[in-house]
Amino acid sequence: MEALQYWLEGLRVATTPTNLLFAFVGSLLGTIIGVLPGIGPAAGTAILIPLTFQMEPIPAIIMLSAIYYGAMYGGTITSVLVNVPGEATSVITCLDGYQMARQGRAGAALGISAIGSFIGGTAATAALMVVALPLASLALKFGPPEVFALLVVGLSLATGLAGRSMLAALIMTSFGLLLALVGMDPVRGAPRFSFGITELYDGVGFIPVAMGLYGIGEILVSVERPFQEVIKTRLSSLLPDRQEWRRSAGAIGRGTVLGFVLGLIPGIGAVIPTFVAYVLEKRVSKHPERFGTGVIEGVAAPETANNSYATGAMVPLLALGIPGSPTLAVLMGAFTINGITPGPMLFRDRPDLVWGVIASFYIGNLFLVILNLPLVGLWAKLLEVRYQYLYAGVLLFCIVGAYSARQSTFDVVVMLVFGLLGYVFRKLDWPLAPAVLALILGPMLEKTLRMSLEMSGGELSILVTRPVSAALLILAALILTGTGLRSLPFRKVA
Amino acid sequence: MSARQRAWQVASALFVVLALAAVAESLRYGFLDRLGPGPGFFPFCVSVVMGALGVTLLVGSSRMKAAAADGESVVPAGDEARRVVRVAAGLVVTVVLLGPVGFRLSTLVFLVYLPWSIGARNLWAIAVIALAGSFGVFHVFHYWLHVPLPVGVFGL
Q: Does the pLDDT at position A428 exceed 80?
């Protein structure tokens, strides 16, 4: 009941003309980012942050959130039409989506994807309203040891589920943590790892690092490959036939629940829910052998799951201040730039913002289904933009974004350095997500650890004598041990 | 030993060196003080863990199984390498020039150079994109969004 009252107030905030406009602009930009291969949602969100510098926090966050979940819609279009995923969450959609396109059913694939995404996103927003407030209230009762343990669980998941080698993922996590320590010590105020460079007293900027690792790193890897010509595909009716509707209904329902539940687990990432949804659909199907040949359930389930996940993953971000994926880490950086700290206090201190943003998800999803169904032909045209110009534009916005966050050419240099590092890590096949999440969670991790130790007079046992923190740390150990055993000795994990 | 194994070994070794340097630096900050853990406590712990992981991976990379060692080449060659070097070089020069000559001139040159260097040959399209991306973007950010961008010695 309380949530409903808050939501009605949020709806009033979200439906002001300004906020409606920015929800629309965010949905539009998100779709474009999703459509264009070579720009993932993390890089896309990061390069558009400068647009919000002169905006009020609520429309800024509404727009950036819409970019985030809007990218999930757009990614499908390239998967279906050209067999190239617009972003990683649409990889699995290529399997059946492209086959449907080859059979002349591209319209139905795109239609069910947009409708499933809308249902998944809308239902997950309703679930978010129910779950977020109690979770935030619970989190307010957490002390530093519990928050520390929770952060360790999030980082363990991000580390354990990423990449080819658990050791490489752990090294990337420690690299991110080390980067997070550059700058003033949060407790004593002493500079660390700044080597007399005044720009480093404020720490390594998260936005330049994220833009470098994701924006520039992605472009450098993309330019290696020969440029692909776009295959022109005719779009027939966008609505599935009656039999396809019947087959999709269950897939959409299961994808919604699965995506939302997996979204609640910080660190799991946006790709896993789509694969799990696909595998689940194949398991429950009477004809699993048909998957991969162009079955509509193979499109409906993962596309629904990724949008449901996108909203579900907002729960740990908003209620606990823990981003579950690199894109959410970028979004958290955008919150901070706009003077907002996500977490349980936000529900108490800025209910207008939290509930306004949550209510805007409904509106954004509505905009997205409108943008994605009738205008799908227009998005397909966007694929004809030559990559040479596209890459130039993305790199330009990386420069603008890195500079404008703090009006510092030093940050542009930082972005360039991390762009080159991002390229190297991609070539090595070392995961970036653990480093990015560690960079954003590092300061809170250190602060809560030191506060815990100060509470206990320096006794580390405080972390294991309190039941909640002990249980969470055992969970983190199980995650790392479980995934670690699979990856050792240095065999492929994922 | 495959190219990937060698690359992993080099990367692991570099992380070990970074960890050693970070351990040495963190010891300067004070490990503990009267209030509890000092500014060097957490950096020291993280650096030690990073070093230990780096050593383990360095040793383990040589035993990496074939499935993990395979995959696409780590170091690009031929045209692939040339395209990457051209883009990276263009970025480095632009970043170096950004402060001294300003946003408009440095990005104008960059936006002419970059598409051309990776194969675009439509001069009209290049010119339009270069002008819109340099002078146009500056105008939008500087005057409309009130986000200042660098102005160099020529006032551009």
A: yes
